[in-house]
Amino acid sequence: ALPICQRLIGYTIIRTPTLGYAGSTLIFPGYNFTSQYFQARITSDNARYAAVPYITIVLSQDSIANNQSNILTKMCKVLSPYSLSPGVTYLPKSIYNSVPGSNGYAVMTDVANYHNSADSLFFVLSNYPGFEPYLYLYKAESNTVSYPVYSGMMSSNGENMEYARIASSGGTNQPQIMMSVSIDYQNSGDFDLWGIRTFDAVNWFALTIEYSAIIRSRYSDIIAKRNVNGSFNIAYKNLYYNMENVGYYSISNSQSKFIYNVNTNYANSYCSPKPAFRYFQNDSCQIIWSDFYRTYSTHGCEATYVFIKAAVEGYYNESTDEHSQYLAMYALLRDQTPPYNIIDTGIAYLDYQSLNNVFTFPDAPSGNFYLVLKHYNTIETWSSVPVSISNNPVSYDFTDLQSKAYGNNMMMKGSKWCIYSGDVTQDGFIDINDLQLVDNDVYNFITGYSYLTDLNGDFFVDIADYVITDNNALNFVSAVTP
Fold first, then answer.
1. What are the start-end ranges of the E strands in 199-340?
2. Taking residues 225-243, what's their average pLDDT?
3. Sheet of 204-210: strands edge to edge?
4. Confidence (pLDDT) at 2
5. Is the torsion defined by CA of 446, 449, 451, 455 positive or negative?
């Protein structure tokens, strides 16, 4: 049998303005080398008690015994968090009865601190093995070390719910609480994102955040604006076909804003994104997200955007009706009148199967603009007419009609109208200059990812790339613009 690897959770303290830092591993009573800890969550009452706050931490545990998983939730309190060596008070029992079985570390217990005449902690449990269509609620006093007590449950009529997260501002007499939760529509794998709100910690109502048959919304996180009742930001993974975009939703009382895709440098987000508030120019939204190698930050609460579908001659395979790889594409918004100034630029990968993605324009107002598609070895291609862009979703499909491109400037390949490949120099013409570059790389047996002269995306610069360029040069293919 394979050895059981430990999954431990610890904490790090960073003290300012005099810099100091420390950290340690949380060791709960009953710990042994088979214990698996995961999904840690933290809250504090420092919105009301900034000088002497209490911190509450909850986490899930898989207590493995005799090769049998047993899921439970543990809780601890830190009563002196400003110290670099704080005392941790552990509550040894689980919040709820342990249950045998495991569901891939998806069990989640989250906690929020709210104030409604008394200081209280509110807990929500989701993805409890065998009871996935339910959310379980618990309450506890925040200024004492006591176990939460059961406070009710919510049902989704048999549809599984997961990753329920909860937040509250923590301010005095500010009882508004909000949860974000993904619900598996008819348990089909199509996850929709819902919000669940209360104004008094008693009566709850649901609201739809993202509900679409082609988008799977999962792994959300929620934050409440400190000391502001009813202001929440939510970040989540917006799984669009094969693309891992980051979606964002903000709400202040009854006013809400929404962005389909904030990771606009065409990087997939492989980690769950985090929401934040950015205290700048009357406050704004902030989203922290990452790919394999880097962490990014995007700000702003709303944007204009458009779903764009396009096929590129060299990359498109008519047999599979797919591109050979994910394709980085720039989409420019240009003014509809001369001199056709660039208003904003969106960047995204086109999904290799659907040939589609959502392009976000954070600095563009609503209005009518030409869409201009650019890739590093294709002809710049304009939409045939200005397209109405706003913060409501619109779509533009370049593949279904030749007339979708200005001047009918596309070629038919299989069942799709495709953007011409071969403009390696990006001067708007496919000519001898492009042919020379491709020919040199063919001669030198150039291989690798993202070479300008690899027109079909097979990681080799060879005769197939030369033929594409040669044909288009013979036909004097060039950009067609207003």
1. 204-210, 215-224, 231-240, 243-252, 255-259, 274-278, 284-290, 295-299, 304-309, 311-312, 316-317, 322-323, 327-335
2. 90
3. 161-168, 177-185, 190-198, 204-210
4. 42
5. positive
- Whether 1 shows a pLDDT value over 60: the answer reads no
Q: For residues 211 and 265, which has the higher predicted lDDT (pLDDT)?
A: 211
Q: Which domain range does residue 171 map to? A: 10-229
- Evaluate whether residue 147 is within a structural domain: yes
Nearest of 102, 90, 25 to residue 61 by alpha carbon: 102
Q: Which residue has the higher pLDDT, 87 or 374?
A: 374
Residues 360 and 225 in one domain: no
Q: How far is CA 15 from CA 22, 76, 79, 99, 435, in A?
A: 9, 21, 16, 39, 60
Final residue in a domain of this structure, among 210, 229, 248: 229
Query: Is residue 473 domain-shared with residue 357, that is, in the same domain?
Result: yes
CATH of the domain at 331: 2.60.40.4130
Q: 174 versus 309: which is more confidently predicted?
A: 309
Question: Which residues face 309 on adjacent strands?
Answer: 356, 397
Tally of domains within the chain: 2
Which tokens sit at 139?
Answer: 């309450």
Min mean pLDDT across 137-146, 274-283, 298-307, 438-447 is at: 274-283
Residue 212 CA to residue 193 CA, distance in Å, equals 9
User: Is 265 part of any domain?
Assistant: no
Q: How confident is the model at residue 242 (pLDDT cuts 50, 70, 90)?
A: confident
